[in-house]
Structure formats: C-alpha cells, structure tokens
Specification:
Strand content: 5-15%
Structural class: alpha/beta
Strand order of the largest sheet: 3-4-2-1-5-6
Largest sheet: 6 strands, parallel
CATH topology: Undecaprenyl pyrophosphate synthetase
Number of domains: 1
Bound molecules: 3-methylbut-3-enyl trihydrogen diphosphate, magnesium ion
Distance between the termini: 18 Å
Number of helices: 9
CATH architecture: 3-Layer(aba) Sandwich
Order of helices and strands: HEHHEHEHEHHEEHH
CATH class: Alpha Beta
Number of strands: 6
C-alpha cells in the first residue's frame, strides 16, 4: 500500500464495516417488554444497515449476532434467539439474493442444532453467486475461538508435513482466520453504549477504527450510521507511521 493510499483510506467509505449489535435487551426492558422483543426489533435495523451499506458500495458488512459467551444467558432467551435466527435466515434470503448480497456465517457452527446448521448451509448456498456485497453474520463466534481454530488447523498441517513451524507467520495465520478472503475491517462500530470488544474480531480489528454509539441497536438507523461514517472519514489512519508520513503535502 502506498502512502497516498493510506491517506485515501481515511477519507473514503470503509470497504469493510463490522458491528457489535448491542442494546436489544435494554431497548425492550426500557419499554417494559420482554427482552426477546428487542431482538426482534433489531432485525429491522439489520435490514436497514444492509441496505445502507449496499447503497454506499461497502464490500463487506460483518454483524455480531451471537457470541460464544452468549450461551451463558438464561436458557429461554438462548432458545428464542435460536428460533429467531432460524426464522430470519429463511425469511430474508430472498431479499438478500435480489440485492446481490452473499451471506456467510462465521463462527463455530457445530455448536448449533442440526436443523439450524442445515438452514445456514442452505442460506449460504442460495446466495453463493451474489457478487455485490458480503454479509457476514458472526454466530457462536468468539475472537479467541477464531485464533485457536487457526492454530489447530496449522498444527494439523504441520503434523501432516505440509508446513514447517518456521513457515507460520502473520500471513499464514491470517489465511486460517475468518474473513481472510475479504478486505480488512476498516471500521468497527459498537452500539448500546458499552465500550468493549466482547471477544469479537480480535485478530481482524488490529487496525480498525473504533466507533462507539450510545444508540441502542433497535434504534440504529441512517442518522446513527451516518454519524459513524463521518467519524471514520475524520480519522487519520497511521498504521504505525507518523502523521506527516501519511498526509500528502
Ligand atoms: C445484543 O443485545 C444482542 C445479543 C447479544 C444477542 P443484548 O441482548 O446484549 O442487549 P443488552 O446489552 O442486554 O441491552
Ligand atoms: C456482544 O454483546 C455480543 C453481541 C452483540 C452478539 P454482549 O451483550 O454479549 O456483550 P457483553 O456481555 O455486554 O460484554
Ligand atoms: Mg448486551
């Protein structure tokens, strides 16, 4: 990447946006409703943000839907989330396909019930040929899981004599982590007011610009999205260099 490219990436629209969709439960609770209604209301925001990203020619959108730690929630909430996930996958595929959006699920799919695993495979297959944008849904995903999984795959190859330990470097590790087939995550947004990563993209977010929004996910729409894009455009991305190095004279 040339120095002027580095600078340009700060003013252009991000190629890859990742979002920690947080605040569904509080949104519902603040209205005296059960938490699951917040999750349901959050689906509308997903649809809206997918459309906004498509309009702005964002190449990849990665949404954190269920973390590897979310299994710790009350059984009833987990069950309802799984049901919602299954329904949404079935219901939304047609619209995604119509809009040229390829769906990809990242995370440890083996942790889900066989029926949901099958639904995931089907939804991915139905949108496999779509080329306008990639929508990655992180489900049973954890950044630590992602890195451990990469390490395990490399160890297996090493045992099989396919690679030597000396060949393990950042580029190789990257190949075995999720999203390596897509652009770097330029912008990582978290809604809902908390300022933490919660085990999301630990490897991939090394140089992402972070944006924390107080808006709860079901209320997240065009205005909040624009605010995040404006913040991104105002950042100077230095990638370890000095400001003078990346700002063209
Ligand atoms: C995020 O909203 C969605 C999931 C984690 C599935 P939350 O359910 O975490 O909402 P809050 O943080 O409790 O408000
Ligand atoms: C992160 O939100 C996971 C998702 C948005 C899917 P959480 O609500 O689970 O995060 P913590 O527990 O507040 O860190
Ligand atoms: Mg939360």
């Amino acid at each position: 990447m040339s120095q002027s490219d580095l600078h340009r990436s700060a003013v252009a629209t991000p190629r890859h946006i990742a979002i920690i969709m947080d605040g569904n439960g509080r949104w519902a609770e603040s209205q005296g409703k059960p938490r699951v209604l917040g999750h349901r209301a959050g689906v509308k925001s997903v649809r809206e943000v997918v459309a906004l990203c498509r309009e702005r020619k964002v190449e990849s959108l990665t949404l954190f839907a269920f973390s590897s730690e979310n299994w710790r929630r009350p059984e009833r909430e987990v069950q309802l989330l799984m049901k919602l996930f299954t329904t949404v996958l079935r219901r939304e595929v047609r619209l995604l396909k119509k809009n040229g959006v390829r769906l990809k699920i990242i995370g440890d799919i083996s942790g889900f019930e066989p029926k949901l695993q099958e639904r995931i495979r089907l939804a991915e297959a139905q949108t496999a040929e779509c080329g306008q944008m990639v929508l990655n849904i992180a489900a049973n995903y954890g950044g630590r899981w992602d890195m451990v999984d990469a390490a395990r795959q490399m160890a297996t190859l090493a045992l099989q004599g396919e690679i030597t330990p000396e060949q393990i470097d950042e580029a190789l590790m990257d190949r075995f982590t999720c999203l390596s087939d897509q652009a770097e995550v330029d912008l990582l947004i978290r809604t809902g007011g908390e300022q933490r990563i919660s085990n999301f993209l630990l490897w991939q977010a090394a140089y992402s610009e972070l944006f924390f929004s107080d808006t709860l996910w079901p209320d997240f729409g065009e205005a909040a999205f624009e605010e995040a894009l404006e913040a991104f455009a105002s950042r100077q991305r230095r990638f370890g260099q000095t400001g003078a190095q990346v700002t063209p004279r």
